[in-house]
């Protein structure tokens, strides 16, 4: 199935419109062996990595670890990654299940805390837990310090730009391990065909990766890193573009 991705990349190269690919990994809070594997993978392939960090439970240990990883940057993964929706609804932290002022205050605190911990490595982009946020909160995000939002799926117009992800490595409804390489390649090929000039994001969750997930990342980066049909870029550059 790699052939369908290579064909899509060759089409991009022939048109002189290389795809902008980027990589987001969710749920970081502290140094772990799995985080070491993630950062080693980024360094091995020279690919920038955005860590969506949960502010409430993180601190200096993660900041010190990332000081040794120049390809890493940090986005704001909600506040506590805590579900406030009832069992009858999908999990959501950034919904209308609490007072809007409380939600915005937490996001402001998360943005401030990560900026203090990570300095210029912190990018003012909100990654909503579970990729869900109530639309009525979106107009309030700029005053809370955010310049963009990153969820999953095609980007939509709104008060802030969306820099989204499109290929999720994990089979959340099944094995909760890495999805098959054929399915992932099909998703990536579809994104390359459908997203036009919008950035295309790869979404990983290092804490739950199995061998299949790690293997896919190595295969993907080997296949794409020097291909003229794409360029790997970091979230800070995407935010400026």
Automatic annotation (TrEMBL):
One of its GO terms (biological process) is carbohydrate metabolic process. It comes from the Bacteria. Signal peptide: none annotated. This is Polysaccharide deacetylase.
């Amino acid at each position: 199935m790699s052939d369908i991705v290579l064909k899509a990349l060759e089409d991009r190269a022939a048109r002189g419109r290389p795809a902008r690919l980027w990589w987001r990994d969710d749920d970081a809070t502290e140094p772990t062996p799995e985080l070491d594997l993630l950062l080693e993978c980024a360094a091995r392939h020279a690919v920038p990595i955005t860590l969506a960090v949960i502010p409430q439970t993180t601190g200096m240990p993660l900041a010190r670890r990332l000081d040794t990883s120049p390809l890493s940057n940090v986005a704001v993964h909600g506040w506590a990654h805590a579900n406030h929706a009832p069992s009858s609804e999908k999990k959501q932290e950034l919904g209308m299940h609490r007072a809007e002022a409380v939600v915005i205050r937490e996001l402001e605190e998360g943005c401030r805390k990560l900026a203090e911990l990570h300095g210029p490595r912190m990018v003012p982009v909100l990654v909503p837990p579970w990729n869900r946020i109530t639309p009525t909160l979106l107009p309030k995000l700029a005053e809370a310090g955010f310049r963009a939002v990153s969820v999953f799926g095609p980007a939509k117009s709104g008060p802030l730009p969306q820099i989204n992800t499109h290929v999720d490595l994990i089979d959340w409804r099944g094995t909760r391990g890495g999805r098959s390489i054929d399915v992932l390649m099909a998703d990536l090929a579809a994104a390359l065909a459908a997203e036009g000039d919008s950035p295309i994001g790869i979404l990983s969750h290092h804490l739950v990766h199995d061998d299949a997930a790690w293997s896919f990342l190595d295969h993907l980066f080997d296949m794409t890193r020097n291909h003229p049909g794409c360029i790997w870029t970091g979230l800070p550059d995407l935010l400026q573009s």
